[in-house]
Amino acid sequence: MNVTVARIYVTEGKHIYEKVFKRLHDQHKVNGVTVFRGISGFGRSGETHSSELLDMSFDLPVVIEFFDADEKVQEVLQTLEDIIPQCHVLTFAAQLS
Amino acid sequence: MNVTVARIYVTEGKHIYEKVFKRLHDQHKVNGVTVFRGISGFGRSGETHSSELLDMSFDLPVVIEFFDADEKVQEVLQTLEDIIPQCHVLTFAAQLS
Amino acid sequence: MNVTVARIYVTEGKHIYEKVFKRLHDQHKVNGVTVFRGISGFGRSGETHSSELLDMSFDLPVVIEFFDADEKVQEVLQTLEDIIPQCHVLTFAAQLS
User: Fold this and answer.
1) Per the CB < 8 Å rule, is A35 touching B36?
2) Sequence-separated (6 or more) residues with CB below 8 Å from residue B7
3) Which partner for C40 in A66, B88, C50, C86 could form a disulfide, CB atoms 3.0-4.6 Å apart?
4) Tens-digit pLDDT profile for chain B (97 aa)?
5) Which pLDDT score, from 0 to 100, does residue C53 have?
6) What gap in Å lies between CA B22 and CA C4, rounded to an integer?
7) What number is the ipTM of this complex?
8) What chains are in contact with A, requiring at least 3 Cβ pairs below 8 Å?
């Protein structure tokens, strides 16, 4: 089955991931949501978020990954545009088996 | 070199990942196996597995990722069908360098 | 926007990831770098690196993921060839939104 995988890149500090997770769970009921915490990272600002930096250790990178039929994923991502900053979502095609 | 990446989505509780890992290592000797633990997730049942939920903190999402030549990956996945539930494996094409 | 995602697979022990991270940050200023620590893994040598093995718990798998325009990613990967062992980088196409 062809699916689209979405990976949403945020950090813990702004509590975006809890909001996104709640919507994916309660409202959209998408298949296969997994949240990963990174140990280091940086975005366009260049500011490093790392478990080795004490003041950043509560604001680590978080990736929310989910997959579903392409149409569903695109629809879900549109409804999340109000909480996810631009250029923070990757999508790619995969096969589910 | 063209490879296929497989990502197998399970949870820790059922000890599937140890079995899969052992087979990938001992029997199939595939290249590049990495296991990641997620901090939250849910599947088709909608039941949330999260490090923030005490009773779920020993049953967190686990992703077993590996890559190899496509033929090898498909062959390996077939031999794992007895232990991995349906619709828990994503595959996609990538370049190895 | 079409981007290329790169995933670089190393282990913690050799301090490769800190060097790669520093270059990606200071020199290349790529978009979207996230580093993940795995809980288990093995490479071509077959040697298992696992958080459950005491002598390997400081040498866990680490994945450095970043994305940018394809040309930029290829250029960056070339400059990293001196520190990343061969056959440890996956690249694949994705959409950024």
Assistant:
1) no
2) B63, B64, B65, B89, B90, B91
3) C50
4) 999 999 999 999 888 999 999 999 999 888 889 999 999 999 888 889 988 887 777 889 999 999 999 999 999 999 999 999 999 999 999 999 9
5) 80
6) 32
7) 0.92
8) B, C
Strand (E) or helix (H) holding A95: strand A89-96
Alpha helices in B1-97 (DSSP H): 16-22, 70-79
| pTM for this model (two decimals) | 0.94
B11-49 core/surface letters (b: 16 or more CB in 10 A; e: else): bbeeebbeebbeebbeebebbbbbbbbbbbbbbeeeebb
- CA dist C68 to A36, A43, B44, C29, C85, Å? 21, 11, 32, 10, 22
User: In chain A, which residue's Cα lies nearest the Cα of B94?
Assistant: A94
Would the CB atoms of A87 and C97 count as touching at under 8 Å? yes
Tens digits of residue pLDDT in A14-25: 889 999 999 999
Minimum CA–CA partner of B35 in chain A: A36
A2, A71 contact by CB (below 8 A): no
